From TrEMBL:
<feature type="domain" description="Serine/threonine specific protein phosphatases">
    <location>
        <begin position="173"/>
        <end position="178"/>
    </location>
</feature>
<dbReference type="GO" id="GO:0046872">
    <property type="term" value="F:metal ion binding"/>
</dbReference>
<keyword id="KW-0464">Manganese</keyword>
<dbReference type="Pfam" id="PF16891">
    <property type="entry name" value="STPPase_N"/>
</dbReference>
<dbReference type="InterPro" id="IPR029052">
    <property type="entry name" value="Metallo-depent_PP-like"/>
</dbReference>
<keyword id="KW-0479">Metal-binding</keyword>
<comment type="similarity">
    <text>Belongs to the PPP phosphatase family. PP-1 subfamily.</text>
</comment>
<protein>
    <recommendedName>
        <fullName>Serine/threonine-protein phosphatase</fullName>
        <ecNumber>3.1.3.16</ecNumber>
    </recommendedName>
</protein>
<dbReference type="Pfam" id="PF00149">
    <property type="entry name" value="Metallophos"/>
</dbReference>
<dbReference type="InterPro" id="IPR031675">
    <property type="entry name" value="STPPase_N"/>
</dbReference>
<dbReference type="InterPro" id="IPR006186">
    <property type="entry name" value="Ser/Thr-sp_prot-phosphatase"/>
</dbReference>
<dbReference type="InterPro" id="IPR004843">
    <property type="entry name" value="Calcineurin-like_PHP"/>
</dbReference>
<dbReference type="GO" id="GO:0004722">
    <property type="term" value="F:protein serine/threonine phosphatase activity"/>
</dbReference>
<dbReference type="GO" id="GO:0005737">
    <property type="term" value="C:cytoplasm"/>
</dbReference>
<dbReference type="InterPro" id="IPR050341">
    <property type="entry name" value="PP1_catalytic_subunit"/>
</dbReference>
<keyword id="KW-0904">Protein phosphatase</keyword>
<keyword id="KW-0378">Hydrolase</keyword>
Length: 358
């Protein structure tokens, strides 16, 4: 029984609405004791396994402190002011760790899952305030850290810093915007060029090319940024994707980062994005049955409430950037998966936009 509950956090208040989801038996929680390069351990109750990669731990801690102080008005810090050398160290050390871990992550609950962030750094900090800052909770992010928002550099630097600090408790998947051809256009390139230089953008590109592309939680929940692929019949295929790699224009890797569910199609359909496919509820059910899984968890689309179900609750879309781009009134959400595979949603309410008078 994979169960869903809703928890809305608004000014410190919360309430829960139980929504039973009848599928397989609850998978008992267990640690994965195996070769670390093959199976990953997510520590119980946020107990972190620390490791700084090739970075000096004192330097790393200072970077994290400055990034967090930057987002805290009470700290009186106006600028994070990481220098180029520090950012290059973050990229290098995180790249090293990413390549040591598989392209298909195999994680054990409990874990909190977040969708698109898109450079909305203050909202990322709000997510951590609601869900607990690492290492008090384990995290899986589904990609799209950069572009469109004003603070992509702060966002991705904090992500990389936490990945280096807590490599077995903090996980980052690749989104379609962690690709040079996309973030060259939608803001990240310009931010790097304006604040530093183009060479630093290329360093980030080299690291993005090493990000894993999917995760499986307790063998029952498949997570990726985009969605399913006509080339994907067995999750084991994802392990064969070699890194570092750019994102191709078609094929399995492209679809995992670009495809979308659609209520208007049965099977596979054309995607209005001009890339990849759309897929119907029938393809979700078919894939889950064939792979003995219960849920597909993905991001990639703005949804009004921060989360949205599809295919009789066999797929959920998460979006974690409230008031996206300042143009939408959407909420943001994170999904918590506990040891019994109960899923709950914590909602970041959108700010109330005041009408403009001319």
């Amino acid at each position: 029984l994979l169960r869903i509950i809703l928890e809305i956090e608004n000014k410190g208040n919360s309430f829960k609405v139980p929504c039973p989801m009848e599928r397989s038996q609850i998978l008992p929680y267990h640690f994965r004791e195996a070769n670390p390069s093959e199976k990953l351990l997510v520590g119980s109750e946020g107990m972190a396994q620390q490791g700084q990669g090739s970075m000096d731990p004192d330097v790393l801690d200072d970077i994290i402190k400055r990034l967090l102080d930057y987002g805290n008005p009470k700290a009186g810090t106006k600028q994070a002011m990481l220098n180029e050398s520090e950012i290059r160290q973050l990229c290098s050390a995180s790249r090293e760790i990413l390549l040591q871990q598989p392209c298909l992550l195999e994680l054990a609950a409990p874990v909190k899952i977040c969708g698109d962030i898109h450079g909305q750094y203050s909202d990322l900090l709000r997510l951590f305030e609601y869900g607990s800052f690492p290492p008090a909770a384990n995290y899986l992010f589904l990609g799209d850290y950069v572009d469109r928002g004003k603070q992509s550099l702060e966002t991705i630097c904090l992500m990389f810093a936490y990945k280096i600090k807590y490599p077995e408790n903090f996980f980052l998947l690749r989104g379609n915007h962690e690709c040079a051809s996309i973030n060259r256009i939608y803001g990240f390139y310009d931010e790097c060029k304006r604040r530093f230089n183009v060479k630093l953008w290329k360093v980030f590109t080299d690291t993005f090319n090493c990000l894993p592309v999917a995760a499986v939680i307790d063998e029952k929940i498949l997570c990726m940024h985009g969605g399913l692929s006509p080339d994907l019949t067995n999750v084991e295929q994802i392990k064969n994707i070699e890194r570092p790699t750019d994102v191709p224009d078609s094929g399995l890797l492209c679809d995992l980062l670009w495809s979308d569910p659609s209520k208007d199609v049965s099977g596979w359909g054309m995607n209005d994005r001009g890339v990849s496919y759309t897929f119907g509820a029938d393809k979700v059910a078919e894939f889950l049955i064939k792979n003995d899984m219960d849920l597909v968890c993905r991001a990639h689309q703005v949804v009004e409430d921060g989360y949205e179900f599809f295919a009789d609750r066999q797929l959920v879309t998460l979006f974690s950037a409230p008031n996206y781009c300042g143009e939408f009134d959407n909420a943001g959400a994170l999904m918590s998966v506990d040891e019994s595979l109960m899923c709950s949603f914590q909602i970041l309410k959108p700010a109330i936009r005041r009408p403009r008078f001319f």
